[in-house]
Amino acid sequence: MSGRVPCSNQRRRTLSPVYEAARIYYIVDIHNTPHLPPPMSTPQATALSVRQRWLTAVPYLTVLLFLAVIAALVWFTRSYDEEEQRATLINDVLWMEQNLQFKLERNAAQLAQIGQEILAADRHQPQASAALRQLVRAENGLVRVMWLDATGRLQGALPPIGDGEMLGEQLGEQSAANLRLAKALERRVYGPVYAAAGDRQQFEVHVPIYAENGFVGAMIGVYSLHDLVTHELPWWFAERYRVSVHDSDGRELVAKSKVAPLSDRQSYSMAFDPPGGGLTLQVTAYQGETRWVQVLLIGSILLLGGILVWSVLQLRRELQRRHRAEQALRSESLFRRAMEDSMLTGLRARDLDGRITYVNPAFCRMVGYSAEELVGRTPPMPYWDPEFLQQTQEIHDRILAGDASPEGFELRLRRKNGERFDALIFEAPLIDAAGRQTGWMGSMLDITAQKHAEELARQQEERLQATSRLITMGEMASTLAHELNQPLAAIASYNTGCLNRLEQPEIDRSELKDIFDRIGRQARRAGDIIRRVHDFVRRSEPKRERLDINLMIREAIGLIEADSTKRGMRIETDLEEALPSVAADPVMIEQVIVNLVRNGMDAMRDNPPARRTVRVSTRREGDTLVVRVADNGTGIDAETGRRLFEPFFTTKAEGMGMGLNICRSIAELHHGRLGFETNPDGGTIFTLSLPVETP
Amino acid sequence: MTQPCAHIIDDDEAIRDALQWLFKTRDVACATWPSAESFLEALEPGWRGCVVLDIRMEGMSGLECFDMLRQRGNQLPVIFITGHGDVPMAVAALKKGAFDFIEKPFNDSDLVDIVMRALEIDANNHRAETTRETVEARLATLTAREQEVMELILAGKFNKVIADDLCISMRTVEAHRSKVFEKMEVRSAVELAQLVNLVRNRTPH
């Protein structure tokens, strides 16, 4: 028997393919999986993504447009500002020119007036001198006034011409020409600019003076260009503008400037006439003072724009991150769903009330109901086998009570088409993210094929064992036969010899006597062999102990309980308390009870679940204890009943036909009896009676 | 042990004794051996008779003993006694050339009959054996020339033809011929042919 595979091994081996198959294959046909968004490559998705791209681009475009508009606004403001400045500049320049002309006009008028007094009246009146002095001031731009008589001779000057000064300077060729021109034109004439001592630029105005008798002389006012420009300008003008005078060649003759450099843009040139002669007056605005408000405004706009762009970029990055996370989450959830869907193990989630909240396709395939039919159902479930309804309900209640066995449990279930199948179910609490139990998660394996294979293997094993037992017995019988054959053969030979002798005429009596002795010896030898067999049998005599029969029964039932549960059988006991003890071999009695209960279960194999109970009872009846094992099985007909205890008689396909025979032998060894009667409720009652131990 | 007898080999003393008694009552000479080994040890080539061999024995089995016998060139007839389960074995032994087998428990008269038949056959064999040996001994005395002449006589040729074949004179042939007849102790060519055939027919075996 050592070569046989042990049952547990067998079980492990036959179960392993299921676990093998339960491994998850990750190849998932996304297109066929429900609840999935369409793949990204369809035209619809492309349109969607284009729109999305546009949507994501809108903020950037807006920001850019906004910045552009702001920049344009600033630029417009600036140019408008410049325009304004320029207008102001022109206004100012015009004003200044007017002012200068007015001053020159006024000076010339005064010179004419004073000249009248000095030259025409020919008298030096103190008023005239005072007026002259009044006139020759830096504010007026005049540095000297000279007067000439009609011939052009210098009559006087104020301030008087010193020795250090050359007369020619005042009365050069140009001066004389001017004078002549003035005299001819009878109006004042401005002379060209010339350089005077001390690096100064001067020009002259010749004012002809007429009296009643005609031309009497001329007043010459010498202007310092510098003074004129410098002193004539009001402070605010000088603050804002640089004023310079250029000659016809563009050389700068004099300038009133405080700081350089100057902006060329904001400048304005105009002819400086009088004095004329190609002089131009150029007014250039100083770099206007920095407009802090504007700078701040632009700065803050730029800063805010920058922040805006940055935050949009940040936002975009955040969005991308979120998108990636979402993508990862989605693929993860897809993967999980694919796992659940492609699993061969049935998965089922239930809430705490036992209502189904989720089933996977494998589960649906197993029970034959669709997910829609199952989700939301409460017990009893449609796939429960009605025959095992009560049992299933009990298991269900136990699970809900938190009493789920970690080894799982086997259950017979029914598919929608009525087909039964055996399932191995594991239940575990369903814990949500917050750590609370929200229900129960069950995984289910269809082990019908395994169970079937197991059953087949078990039957085969039993048959093999029976066969090997038979072989052993056959060998024993064969040895015994040989052993007995020897003396018998010898006896036969002696006997034939004797017969031969008896046919002969003379008989040697002593010889025959000797042979008969030998025949007797061989007969004794055969007897010895038989005795040895008896001895061998006697060796299995019971070892008697004082036994509590009820305890024996409980132990025996404990031995077969697992088997009975598996076969959907119940064993009920009805044991009388305080029974006297019996003198019996515990192992043998246990064997008898196990045998009888097992027979009872075998007899009820095809019974409906309600009628699958073996009842074991004990009673004291006088001096005997009676153990009754009652089943509701097929019962025993008369023919079977007659041969029931015969060795090698069996009604079972894989039976040996020794069980009841051995049981009866054991009963008889204990001076008891084994019998049977028909159960009034259907089936058979086996009765084992044992004598009460007499003290 | 020159007398022919039945050799009973059985490890069971009672069987040996009973069979010995049985054979004795039928006047069949027998010898008993408690094991195959002891028999094989004592066996001599000249022994005649037959062997009654139990198949199932302690030590060397009956079949092994049979094989050993045949290996040694011993042609004694062997009768197997078999138990109930040994019939296929006995059949195999028969195919190898055993004389017969008888199943235990057996009819003792049948056994004795078989043994007697075996003894008779062995005796016949022995006789044939003896004749053959004599002829061979006579043939051995012939000279080479005489042998040549004898072969031609056996071929049925006349003296004249033999003389021509061997290029010798008729008279010489006649001399050889009479010599051959004398040595072979025959009186005619027919007798010579019978005698020589006895040897020649067995030689191929």
- Number of H/I helices of chain B: 9
How many strand units of chain A? 22
Amino-to-carboxy terminus distance of chain A: 44 Å
Computed Rg of chain B? 24 Å
Overall mean pLDDT of chain B stands at 85
C-alpha Rg of chain A (nearest Å): 70 Å
Which strand order does the major sheet of chain B show?
2-1-3-4-5
Q: Any guess at the CATH architecture of the largest domain in chain B?
A: 3-Layer(aba) Sandwich
Mean pLDDT of chain A: 79
Fraction of residues in H or I helices of chain B: 55-70%
- Could you tell me the CATH topology label of the largest domain in chain A: Beta-Lactamase
Describe this structure in words.
- The complex is a heterodimer of chains A (695) and B (205).
- By secondary structure, chain A is an alpha+beta fold.
- Chain A is 50% helix and 21% strand.
- Chain A has 4 domains: 84-285, Beta-Lactamase; 343-446, Beta-Lactamase, CATH 3.30.450; 453-538; 545-691, Heat Shock Protein 90.
- In chain A, strands 1, 2, 3, 4, 5 and 6 form a 6-stranded antiparallel sheet that branches. Chain A has a 5-stranded antiparallel sheet with strand order 12-11-15-14-13, with helices on both faces.
- The longest helix of chain A is centred in the first third of the chain and has 78 residues, at 43-120.
- The model of chain A is unreliable at 1-41 and 166-170 (pLDDT under 50).
- Chain B is α/β, with parallel strands linked by helices and 205 residues long.
- Chain B has 2 domains: 5-128, Rossmann fold (3-Layer(aba) Sandwich), CATH 3.40.50; 142-202, Winged helix-like DNA-binding domain superfamily/Winged helix DNA-binding domain (Arc Repressor Mutant, subunit A, Orthogonal Bundle).
- Chain B has 9 helices and 5 strands.
- A 5-stranded parallel sheet of chain B has the order 2-1-3-4-5, with helices on both faces.
- The longest helix of chain B is centred in the middle third of the chain and has 34 residues, at 108-141.
- Chain B is elongated and about 75 Å long.
- The model of chain B has no long low-confidence stretch (mean pLDDT 85).
- The chains are: A alpha+beta (695), B alpha/beta (205).
- The A-B interface holds A 478, 481-482, 485-498, 500-501, 504, 515, 518, 521-522, 525 and B 12, 14-15, 17-19, 21-22, 24-26, 56, 83-85, 104-106, 108-109.
